[in-house]
Each structure stands twice: as structure tokens, then as C-alpha cells.
Amino acid sequence: METGEDAQPSAGVDSNVGSEFAPVPNLFCLMKLVREMQCEMEVVKPVLDELEVMRLCRGFGMMSSVNPKDFNFDILHAREFDEDFTRFLRYELLESSCPGDVKLKGLFGKQAQVSDALVSMKACCTETVASLTAANEGVYIKKMDAECSETQNNEDTCTGLVVFSWIRDELFEPEKLRDTPAFILRFLTGLAPDIICCTTREDLEQIKTSMVDSDEQEDDELSSYSVSFHIEKQEDQPDCTECVRMASVDLEALAGDCTGICLLKGSYPAIACTRTMQSAIRTEQVRQTFHSNMQLTFAAWLKEESQHYRIGLSGSIARCVKLCQNILKEFDMLPEDQVNALRCAHEKQQQEKYDEATKKLKDTIAKQRKMVDQVSGELFRLRPRETPSEESDSSLQAASAAYDAFRKWLTSFCTWPLDRKLELILDTPTRLRGIETALYELYSCGQDGQLSSLLEMCATSSKADLLKNINKRCKGKKQHLASGKKDEDGGEQTATWEAFLEKTAQPLNALRTKWWVAVESSLAAAQDAELKKLKCDKKRDNTEWYEREKVIMQNKLDELRKTLLSTDGLLLTVNAHTRGRGVVHCDGSREVHAASTAFLDIVKLDANDREGNLEHAARRQEALGRLMLRPDERHVAMFTVKVRSAVQVCAGKERMCVKFIYFPPSNDSRHSSRASERTIRTFGRTPSLCDYDARNRMMTCLSKDSVAIFKFDEAFKNMERIKEIDLGVRSTLTELPFTDILLQDSTVYVTDSSGFSQGIDIHNDQTSNVLSVHAGPETNAANSRMFELADNLAVGAVSFVPDDDGAFEGEVECISRDDHRHLPALPLGVKFLTDRVSVQCVDDRVFVLDPLAQKVYVFSIQVTVRSDSYRMRQSNGGDSKHSEETSRTECMRKRHWLYTFYHVFEKFPVRGLLDPTAPTPVSIAISSSEAGDGGFVLENYHDFLSLLMSDLMALNKPLHGLDLTKGLTVLRSLRGMDMKSSTLKAFFLTLVTFLPIQICRAEGNALTVLHDGMDQSLDEAEVEIQTWGAADIAESIRFGVLSPLLCAWCGRCVVITSMGKQSTGKSYFLNHLTGSSFAIAGNRCTDGAWMSLRVMHDVLLVVLDFRGSWVV
């Protein structure tokens, strides 16, 4: 784990996540280094790349249900393959059904040498190596082609894997070897114990030098059995105060109405200029809602307001007819007579039109009924086919034509289709014409009993069904018809036409009656349809009348609007619209005479020294916006927070109010944007002084003889009272009132009128001695407010001493926080025109604002507080010079990057106490292109590793037969080298369970659950997050690749953890007990909980490690 300067990203790399790795065929990024901000420090954290692990599994033919092309999309998340990966872990990996072996070789060294080794052993081509940039830090695996594997090892053709590290060369500095390189090498030896160290000529020279110096040392380990020690005091750094850089920036010309200007303290430096806006006519918003049950209606309110204002009434009110009528009625301008006359004329005209149309409809219906009645006789008269008559045919054609015209008229009047049964009945005359011959033939054959039923079917069946029924009944009588003809030729005819007519008269009359009822029904339907149409026309005429009435109302409303707007006075613009149940919502604006009002113009100073040019950085100024000050409130203090926000403390009406101020970005540089404010909390006491600690988001307020400490949440939506200190009890200062207050970490410093200060710890109420920042005896010097320096190790202030020429010289005076020792004073070297300057300190940069010179001076001040260290040395009679050379030689040997092997086995175990099997021994090969004697090179590296093993054995920890010198070889060329084999199951099981994952983070007195070991916090912009239930939160928690493994495990599970105070060896103990690989971080920048899984035969160990000072 890296922090501070060790964690600085390389050029062009994102400081949070680094550069993304683009997938390359047969090249897999197993572990990546992720940068995050934890506890306000940058931390480098190793994270297993789940998608790359799954892609590697798919490359070996596993997870067959997954398409390999799915891994080419960057938008995918590993959780989308959880089901497939869980099946692979359960049925292939954990159940010992993962077949095959794999050959492994590890590469460790700097990037240039590792890339040369990959090309030399034909694992990668030059283009593939070139695609890896310095920012793609991590551990990679290159899957070698089958041809290359066969060439390097002719015994079998199992796949070869080359595991290599890819980290920046800066991490191989001696002071950084114990952090990231040691963890990377631990990961490499866990996957591939056969390691090749890629060295250079310079490495060999450094090894040779250290070995020669080591041979010259005397072995005095057993020279004496008597040992004596002495303690030496060493001053690591002296007290020092110096100005590293200084710059000044000219402010814009101050306006004539500027009454005050000061610097703001907080997250970023800013300037607040207090100005006064002269009295003028201003506009304020008016919003009011009128309910139906209120005594004062909207119309009455409008009439009352018209007595005092010019009313600008919106013309859109005419859309609400009822509202418009009420307004006109209230102002006695409702045109009732005109509207009533228009209504009466319209109703009369409409009734006459309706009566005329109704009469016309009745006449048409009667005419059609009479016509159908006249032709009904012809339509239902049966005629013989044998004796046709021209007169009867013409009368039938005329009747049919008239009936067809009736049917067309009926269809045109009825807007909807008639009932099917009614249609069949109306078609009865047509079907009767088609079956009269067939009826006569049936009668002639003696089937007179079927005539009635067939005539009834004319009104209920179609013509096709009717003919089908007739043919069916005539089919059985064909033979009888033939014999009947013979009898007719021999005898007298049995049936006559007159008898047929007489037989069918009664059923024919019944059919005609049924048909006439259908005709009457269709006429009634046509009449109803036409009456409905007339009613629609009548309603349409009413719509037209409504429009005419609305025009009259609109004209009257326009006349009222002109009258209301023509009066004298301030303008009141009104717009209103109705809602449900008679609710009227009114909004608009009102002109008012506003008195003179004070406001603050806020200007942000961008002092981020990115390029080392402080003067250029200080000149960047941005006008954030304008904050209006209320006349009934007194401005107390303002502090900058976030990026474009501030916290204002004001007092009014015997209460204190804390507001969150946001300055929105503005595209118009000529006009300042209006700030939006939101009240965070109000209190009963009125403060006189306030201070703010931006690091901890804590604010302190001084009110008379008590100090209250508050803490904001991350979104600055809430603040809680942490503690209240009674200065009358805790402080011994007597010269009241208090003139200054400073909040520094957990200590509150208060200053009285005499200039003396005293610190009070907010946790244990411990009170310091009375102190004074100013060491000089000058009584006429003006002093600024106190500020913190040197990362809260010192407290300082600026004093201004008058000069002979009327100017003032500034000097920084400071004391150490621990023992209140005065540090060297620092003259600023600048003459100020006044002693009423504003001084603030932001990130060890002192900003001094001279309002008369209209300049801001920026001083980058570096304060060093003296620190002493004590060292216990062994006293002997030897030469001290020889002792110093020995120390130097040891330091030289331990500064080489190959000494990382020592840090690996010093921090991590060779074998955990609970491990069931012995690990594969680590073997080292040296890749060196040195053209000298190979034996000489081997001898130097062998001696180096021998001394390294001596250092390991001096730790008195079990090494389980570890010998890094065993099998040591020097390789001139990497072609054709041997690779040790391992089972695929052991390889993947080690890969999945090796890296621990951070499951939560402890920061800011809160425990934050991480997603897949990564920090996915929101931006500082205010976002309303949807409230989740407990089930949703539990479903969203995922522990990276460990979650599918937990789902796939079906056996017993044991949880192991350790609890204890900080720096008690919890991680070290868990690593040596279970064989886990928790990183040991003494600086405690990874506070939180970490989880690792270890498979022990049929038991799954869930190992939890808790880190940080919050663990008790």
C-alpha cells in the first residue's frame, strides 16, 4: 500500500483509477493498481480484475456458456457473468473436475528489462509489449502459443503461461521496496514459484560493489560475550521558518460603495467585498392561492389591490370563463344585458331551425312509408312462370325499383349498420321472387305441408340457405315426379295454380305482416338517427354561441385591463388560473420601494500551484457571485466549502442562523450571478466570533463566555453539536472580551484582549498553559488572527509594526503546538499601507490582503518544527569508522531492488500454520546479458542471496526449508528454457483466493461499504438519492470475485478474525496463521475491513482483517 509521495501517478494518468487496459489476445491483466482517496490521502490498492480472470478461464475452454466476444465490450460488469462463473467454480474447480496442467514462469524486474525478456522468450511480440504503457501497472499473464510451448519443452504440449510484473521504475526506489513491489512479488511467487529476475549491467555492478565491501568486513560475531549499549540523541531537523515563494496580484478597482473587504477561510481562498445597493424600486414575487371557502375571493383581492397599485392583468385569464365573469362582476363591468340578448336571439333562431328540420323529417318518413305501402302488394304477389304477362312484369319491375330506392334512402339516413335480422326481413321480397317457382313445384308434387315453413324461412334465412333447403326436400321425389308426368298424360291434372294461391295465402300474409313491421322499425331507426344529427347540430350552434360570448367577455376584460393599467402607482402584474374545486392560483410580481441593502461580492482565488509558478496561479480570479444580506440579520462570518459554495453564519432576532450558500456558474461575465441559500440550522445563542476547520468540516462559535463546536455532514445539509465548552470554568484568561478563536484539529484556542491565548482540548477538556504567539515587546503592533501552519504542528499570526515612512512591515510569528516553543520569526519583506489587513492561511499559504494597495500577497511558508530521535547503539572497542562503513555497506546491499525478496518473506509467511500442504519451493533464475564470466556472475548473485537468507534467518521465524540460493542459475538467453508445470485447479484456486478485498472503509466517523473493493462515491454536487430498503442494500453488496466463490462453496465455512488496537500486529498474525496476504501498512491509510478466502480441504476459511485506529 502506497500513500503520500509514493502514490503520485505518472504523467498523464488519472490519479484515481489509472489508465484502462485495452484487451489484447492471449494477454490478461490479472491485478491492477487502483488509486483512491482514503482518509484524505491518496492510496494505491491492488485489485483483482474479475473480467480478465473470467476471460482467462474462457481462454482455457472453461465457462463454455459465455461468448468470448462478450469480453470485448467495456460496458460490461463482472456481475453479469456471476452465474456462469459460479458454475465453473462449483462443478469444475472445487469438485476436482478441472483437467489438464499448465506450465508457469514468472518475470520480475523493471519495465524495460521485463519487456526485453518477454520478446526474447517469444512470449510477446514487440507490438504487444509496446501497447503496455507505464500507466498500465499491475500483474499480467501471457498465454503462449502452442508452437512456442512445444519448442521450449518437447516433453509435452501443455499450455505455457508467463506471469510478469509491470510497475513503474520509481517504485523500485529503496524506500518503496517494502510496499508495492513486495506485494507484487508475493503475488508472483504465489502463482509461479519459478521466478526470473530481469537484471542489467548496472545491477551486477551494484551487487559486486556491495559484495566486495561485505568481504572486507570483520566477522566479530563471537569476539566477545560481554555487550554494552549507549543511547545517542540526534536532532533530525531544527526549528526553521522560511518563505519559499512569494507573489502578489492586483485586484480590480474597488467600487466607491465598498464598505469592507476581507479574505475568507476554508476549502479555497476567496475575497468578500461588502457593498451597498442604493434604495430603488425592486421587484418581488407574489404567489397566493384562493380557496372557494375563503371570505376574500380572488376578484375581491384584485379590486382591493387596484386601490394601491397599477394592475397589469394577464390576458390569459379570459381562458377561464368563470374566473373572468367573477372579475368583471366584481368591477361592475359584466355585460349581462348584451349576453342575455344574444342568448335569447340564438335560442329562438335555433328552435325555429330545429322545428323546420323536424317537420321536414316527418314528411320524408311519411312519404317513404306511403310509397312502400303502395308497392307492397306487387312485391308479395305470386306469378306463374308458364304464362308470363308483359303488364305484370312491368308492374313488378316498377315496384322493385321503388323498393330499391327506399333501401338506398334508408342506408343514407342510418349512420350505423342495421341489425342483421332486420336486414334479412327487409330482403324478403327479393328472396320470394327466387323461390316462387320452386314452391309451386313442391306443391305440384304433393309437398303442400312444407309451404308454410319455407315461406317463414324467407324472413330468417339467406337465399342460398333457402334454396339448399328446397333442393334437399325435392331430391327424394324425383322418381315420383317422373311417374306423375306419365299419369298426367293419361289422366286429369291434380293441382291447379288457383289452388296453390289459395294454399299459400295465409302464410304469405303472415310473411308480409312481419316484413311490414321490419319496415316500420327501419323507418323509426332512420328517424332517430336524423334526430340525433339535429341535436348534434344544435350543440354545435351552442359552441359557436359560446365563442361569441367569450369574445364579448374578452373585449370587456381588455377594457378593464386598460383601465387598471392607466392608473398611477407601482406596478402589480397578476396572472391566475383555476384548479380543481374552485381553487384559484395567483402568481406575479410586485414593485416595492426597497431601502438600501448591503451585499457581498465573492471572488475566488485559484492558488493551485500545478506548474510551480505561484505568481501565475495567484492571478487566476473568478467572480463566484453575489449574496444579498438581509436588513434584519447581522453577518458574522463566512467560510468557503466544496468548490463553489460557502457557509454563512449570521445573527438576527436573538438567534444564530447557519446557511449553505451556492454560487451557480454564470456565462455572463458582466453580471454576477445571484447566490442561492439554504438554511442548515438555527440556534438560540448569538455568536461574536467563529472559526472553521476545512479538513474535519468542524466549526466553532464563540458566544460571550462559551464555545460551541459543530460538525457538518459531507453534503452540508445537517450539522450536529459535538460539545460546548464553558470558558468561565475551563479558561484562566481574565482580560475579557475574547478577541480571537482558532480551531485546530481537536484543540480550541481562545485569545483575550491582552493578546494571550489558551488551548482547550475538546475531547478531554485538558487546558494548556497561557501562551502568546507574539514574542516581541511591541505594544503598538497590530496583530492578525491566528492560523495553523506546518500541517497543524504550529500556530502563527502576522504582526504589523509601523515604519518611519508611515507604512507597516509584516512579520510571521509562530510557536510549536506541542511545547509552545517560539519558532524563528519570518519578516515578510513587504510594506503594507495599513495595519487593517486581512490574513488567512490555506494549505500552508498565507494570504495577506492590503485594502489600500488593493493587492493580495501570497506567501508559501515552510515551517519546520524541531524533532529529536534517540538511538540505542552497541558499545565496543572497535573503530567507529569501521562501524560506520559497515552500516553504509549494509545499507548499500539492502538498497538493491532484489532485496524485495527479503521484504516478501519478512512481511508474509513462507507457509501458514493452517496450510495443509507444503508450498512449492521458490526458485530464482537471473536473466543477464553480461558477456563476462558466467561463473563470476553466478557467484556474486549467490553471495547476495546468501546474505539475504542470513537476514531472514535472523528474524527467528519458520522458513520451512526456504533457500533462495538453491537451484540459482544465470540465463544468458531465455529461448528454450524449462518451465515448471502445475495443475490448472491449483493455479486457478490460487488466483481466485490470493488477493484480499476491501469490503468497507472507515473514514469521517462513518463506515462505508465498498462495491467490489472499489470506491464508487458520488460527486460533491448535491444529488437526491433514492431511499433503499434493507433487502435492496443487501442485494447490492458484492465482494468482487469472492462473492461467486462464496455462492459456489457447499461445504463448511469458518470465519477467522482478530481484534486489537492499532499497530498490534493483527494483519501479521492472520497472514502467518492462515497464509493470507493482507498488506501490512504502518501508516494506517487503509482504515476499514478486508476479507480473504482460504480453501483448506473441505473447509473454507473466511479471514477478516480490521485496520485503523477505530479498532479497539
UniProtKB/TrEMBL annotation:
Recorded hits in InterPro entries, A to Z, give: G_VLIG_dom, P-loop_NTPase
Mention one GO molecular function. Answer: GTP binding
Q: Which SUPFAM superfamilies match?
A: P-loop containing nucleoside triphosphate hydrolases
Domain of life per record: Eukaryota
The record's section on Gene3D superfamilies has: P-loop containing nucleotide triphosphate hydrolases
Please list the residue ranges annotated as the VLIG-type G domain. Answer: 1050-1112
Coiled-coil ranges per UniProt? none
Q: What is this protein called?
A: VLIG-type G domain-containing protein
Organism field: Phytophthora fragariae
